[in-house]
Fold:
Amino acid sequence: MRIGIRGIGWLTREGFGCIRNGLRHLYEDGEDVRVLPKKGIFSHPFKNFGRLDAVSRMTVYAVSLALQDAGVEYSPLRKQDLGIVGTSAEGSLRTDLDYFRDYLESGRTLSRGNLFIYTLPSSAIGEAAIHFGLLGPALYASGRANILSGALEIAAEMIEAGQTPAVLAGRAEPDEAVFLLVQRDYTAGPGFLCDLDEARSVTDVSADAAIVVDQFLRLAARKG
Structure:
């Protein structure tokens, strides 16, 4: 079985975009990730988007861009036979601290429920699976030195085991994110960006989003 990459969505401190379709938006003065909803990044309204923590927002942004790059359409009535594997160096630490700070400020009696929801690092993956209608396995992974490379390997193992034909695999932090749509039945041509080994050659070097994006853009340029 040959596995390849159909699409990639990314966000860095400088901007956001896709790899295959050439979308690249660099933030102007005063802009940041908050401009994305205004760009119509979601095909339908995202329920309770305002309560999402930073990592969850970056996750769903990157997943939406990866699906767009792969040409995958989704809607509330169109579920996707896709899995998702996410990871993060920071995990839910920032929200954990916010939750405990709110608990202290509330007199050690209670804290806001909308913060509690995101004190689990897997919450971002759950939010993405719900909004995009993903029917495959959903997994949060940690413990690897290069966590993006680790997520890619887990995605490949899921596909090889027949658990799902395709997996969204990526890393999200509060200020950057990269997600790849990994799929079976790779064939060289316009339907895929690259094969699994070519993707490994990029993700094995670094998990830093800016470096990964630059290397995938170079790879896409070489392939024309």
Notes: The CA atoms of residues 101 and 107 lie 10 Å apart. The chain has one domain: 3-89+128-223. The mean pLDDT is 90.
